[in-house]
Amino acid sequence: MQLGLVGLGKMGFNMRERIRRAGHEVVGYDRNPEVTDASSLADLVAKLEAPRVVWVMVPSGDITRNTIAELGGLLSPGDLVIDGGNSRYTDDKVNAEALAEKEIGYLDAGVSGGVWGLDNGYGLMVGGDAAHVELAMPIFDALRPEGPREEGFAHAGTVGAGHFAKMIHNGIEYGLMQAYAEGFELLEASKLVENVPATIKAWQRGTVVRSWLLDLLVRALDSDPELDDLRGHVEDSGEGRWTVEEAINLAVPAPVISAALFARFASRQDDSPAMRAVAALRNQFGGHAVTAAGPSSGSGSTQG
């Protein structure tokens, strides 16, 4: 099968290679001249035979929306666009309706696997029409891990379902990472546990907490046993926020995911105004000791 792939970054570059290894032809386009196979989106479309399938793998937001809109003006009836980035699921209906006016199909694909997907395969969650899924199935089969299809691929539902499923997947990931991180800190704080990396490594087989994320934590500890080469500053890509927003909209309790998201916010504060307020209150009602802010602590007024 032939595929056009827009975006050859960390994920897209490896996806192109994995699809090619499966025997398919991939024409990739990227603004980086060192990796691109086409000079423009128009050139990419011209290199494909109808019915064309074009997979968009660029950052979510305006970049994705603009790319899909441009493709809508270049493709023909019967062609298919797949958004495989981390777009918000609410964008999918808008994109699908705009392309449908031109008789161009649309699928949204949640893709998990990161930089390891080239060799391990990618977990795929897809939303859209069954006929469009069937058209692109050779590509999905090339990307997914080896083994039963249902263990690495799901046609999750109608348009938007793929990105919604990936959003929840990433929310769960937030909670799992936070639990491992808190366990690491508790072990580090203990005077009883003398070899924290070895203890965590021993969880890799036979325990109920074993997972690929645990394997990655072990890998990180192998190179930096106390993780002191890193700052504890953690960004969020947006999907954790969207997951919490949907939990609120659907009245579904999600305390673990919410707490994990807020912990990331806390990681970015050199000195928390909220915790300064807690310290002040403890001092006021109980006379508990407080620590004065030093001249270089970064503390100061929270007023504009």
Q: What is the strand and helix layout of this fold?
A:
Elements: E1 2-6, H1 10-21, E2 25-29, H2 41-46, E3 53-56, H3 62-74, E4 80-83, H4 90-100, E5 105-112, H5 117-120, E6 123-127, H6 130-143, E7 153-157, H7 161-189, H8 196-201, H9 212-223, H10 239-249, H11 255-267, H12 273-286
Parallel strand pairs: 1-2, 1-3, 3-4, 4-5, 6-7
Antiparallel strand pairs: 5-6
Helix pairs in contact: 3-4, 7-10, 7-11
Structural class: alpha/beta
Q: Give the biggest beta sheet.
A: 7 strands, mixed
The CATH architecture name of the largest domain reads 3-Layer(aba) Sandwich
The gyration radius over C-alpha positions equals 23 Å
* CATH domain class of the largest domain: Alpha Beta
Which range best describes the helical content: under 10%, 10-25%, 25-40%, 40-55%, 55-70% or over 70%? 40-55%
Order of helices and strands: EHEHEHEHEHEHEHHHHHH
Unreliable runs? 296-304
Number of domains: 2
Number of helices: 12
- Give the CATH superfamily of the largest domain: NAD(P)-binding Rossmann-like Domain
Distance between the termini: 58 Å
In words, what does this structure look like?
With 304 residues, this protein is α/β, with parallel strands linked by helices. Helices cover 48% and strands 12% of the residues. The chain has helices at residues 10-21, 41-46, 62-74, 90-100, 117-120, 130-143, 161-189, 196-201, 212-223, 239-249, 255-267, 273-286, and strands at residues 2-6, 25-29, 53-56, 80-83, 105-112, 123-127, 153-157. Residues 296-304 have low confidence and may be disordered.
